[in-house]
Q: What sequence folds into this?
DNA sequence: TGAAATTATGTCGAATATGATATAATCTAA
DNA sequence: TTAGATTATATCATATTCGACATAATTTCA
């Protein structure tokens, strides 16, 4: 992995192992991250379409604006569980969720 | 919710709120749990198909037999993240994973 | 049968995610 | 431009999940 990209990921909080480890875990790790990011995008798109602020969403979810921001940003501290539960709570249509999940 | 069922869920570790909260959260909570369970089943089916023990899977995942058992059992201490990463690590065929995830 | 293998359950310290808060950065209209 | 609104980032205490271990329950098969 090129150094610059690794630095960027590490700065964001992603754990990046050594070259061998990266090569070994890359496929499933990449798929996992891709899945998360697609759900993040789905969440943001859904909010934008409804013309709601992150604060609004936070209220609906019983969370905070900062966490909603992290969800949308794909922060590594955000779990698939939180993303999926949030999308469901926002009444995300099955199709939308499908579309995101299909990008795995 | 009927008392018996609630008792069963609580005994298993599931958080069950009061009636109002239950009614409010039921749909998405149910969908979330169903989603998890479908991934649990996918994991077990995949292991059985490969004729591997939970111990084998634990080694592959760098985890423990007890956690694999909990994954397959749909224990509430198991996250979607762990399930998805496990399925990916086991080389879950794309279609299989999608199918499981799409049961939302 | 019953011993060995496999799976299930309970518990724990450590690791990680959470909502909350503060505040910085960015965007939006006027 | 600039004030107000919105979003991003940093940090924290708390809560939850993790792998590990012990051990119980169940299954397998000779």
A:
């Amino acid at each position: 992995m090129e150094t610059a990209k690794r630095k960027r990921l590490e700065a964001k909080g992603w754990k990046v192992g050594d070259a061998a480890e990266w090569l070994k875990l890359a496929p499933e790790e990449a798929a996992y991250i891709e899945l998360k990011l697609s759900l993040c995008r789905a969440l943001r798109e859904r909010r934008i379409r409804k013309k709601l602020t992150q604060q609004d969403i936070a209220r609906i979810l019983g969370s905070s604006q900062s966490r909603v921001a992290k969800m949308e940003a794909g922060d590594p501290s955000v779990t698939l569980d939180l993303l999926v539960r949030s999308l469901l709570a926002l009444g995300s249509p099955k199709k939308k969720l499908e579309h995101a999940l299909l990008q795995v």
Summary: Residues 53-55, 65-66, 68-70, 72-73, 75, 79 of chain A lie near DNA strand D (CB under 10 Å from a C1'). Residues 19-49 of chain A form the longest helix (31 residues). The mean pLDDT of chain A is 81. Helices of chain A lie at 3-11, 19-49, 54-61, 65-73, 80-89, 94-101.
